[in-house]
Amino acid sequence: MELLEMYFWMIIIICGVLNVPIIVLTEDLKTKKRYKKYLKISFIIGLIGIVILLTDWNYLCGYQCIVYTFSPFITLLICKAVMILSKNITKKEGFQIYRKRQIIGSSKIELSDGIYQKNNGDLKHKRYYSWYTSFISATPFILLLLLLIIIKETTC
C-alpha cells in the first residue's frame, strides 16, 4: 500500500466516522443556526470526494467515494428529515435517550444532550423517545448502505 492510497483510506474512514457524532448529537440540529453551520461544513467535506474523483485518485468502485465523503452531509439531511417527519406525524417533539448503566446491572434511561443545547424533553414519553432514537439512529446507516449497494450494482 503506497502513501497516497493510505491517505485516501484515511479520508474515507474519517468521513464515515463523522456520521456517529452527528447521529448522537442530533439535539444540536434543532437550532437552525447550528444546523446550517454543520450543513456547510459537511458539504465542504463532501467536495473532497468530487476532487478525488476528478483527479482519478479513487480506489473504490465508481462513485462510492463521493457517497462516503458526502455521508456526513446526507446523514444531516436524513436526521433533520426524520425530526421533521416525526414531529409532523405525531405532533410531539422527539428527543433522543440513552441508557446509563448502574453498578448492579440495571440501567437508567436519561435524555441525551447535544454539545451546545440541553435536551428539554420529559421522560413521561419514554416509549415514543425510544422509537424515535432507534429510528433516527438506524435510518441514515440503512439509506447510505442501500445507496452504496445501488451504486456498486450499477457502476461496477
Task: Explain the overall architecture.
By secondary structure, the protein is mainly alpha-helical. It has one domain. Helix content is 64%, strand content 6%. The chain has helices spanning 3-17, 19-24, 32-54, 64-69, 71-90, 126-155, and strands spanning 97-101, 107-111. The protein has a two-stranded antiparallel ribbon. Strand 1 and strand 2 form a beta hairpin.
Q: What would the keywords be for this entry?
A:
mainly alpha, 6 helices
Layout of helices and strands:
Elements: H1 3-17, H2 19-24, H3 32-54, H4 64-69, H5 71-90, E1 97-101, E2 107-111, H6 126-155
Antiparallel strand pairs: 1-2
Helix pairs in contact: 3-5, 5-6
Overall pLDDT? 85
How large a portion of the residues is in β-strands, by DSSP E?
5-15%
Order of helices and strands: HHHHHEEH
E-strand count: 2
User: Share of helix among residues?
Assistant: 55-70%
Q: Work out the oligomeric state of the chains in this entry.
A: single chain
Largest sheet: 2 strands, antiparallel
Main β-sheet, spatial strand arrangement: 1-2
